[in-house]
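hi! just following up on the protien thing from before. the input was this:
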Amino acid sequence: MTAMVYAWLAVAIVMGIVEGVTYAMVSVWFAGGAVASMIAALLGLNFKVQLVCFVVVSAILLACLRPLAKKKGIQKPLPTNVHRMIGMVGVVTEDIDNIAATGAVKLSGVEWSARTRDGHKVSVGERVKVVAIDGVKVIVEPVAVLAKV
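and the predicted 3d structure came back as:
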């Protein structure tokens, strides 16, 4: 075997290692091109043909398989039960002030960072209702106290 066969094999292995480390589908196309060039070297074709083979096969793999890989790689968000908290009523444990980025609410025994939907401040001890979830924060609004009859 010629030195070019080993060189293309080394390129393919390095590209495979890079692909394994990055998880981003960035070099697998070039590993395929290197394998094709290694076959061209085994057939005794000159370096220019091997190089053209590398570029063409890599480009074809990239153009044909990248869209498929992106489509298959898109993961749907993992469903959680966090949205069951919408509508729950809790008690403010730290004054809620959107401007100061402070506030906490206790819901079902668990304390959550909280913000108000409309930006109004809410004091400790007030009851609030969860109207939305934003990341790890609950968005709340004050609960009107029902008058006793």
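The chain has three helices and five strands.
The longest helix spans residues 47-73.
cheers
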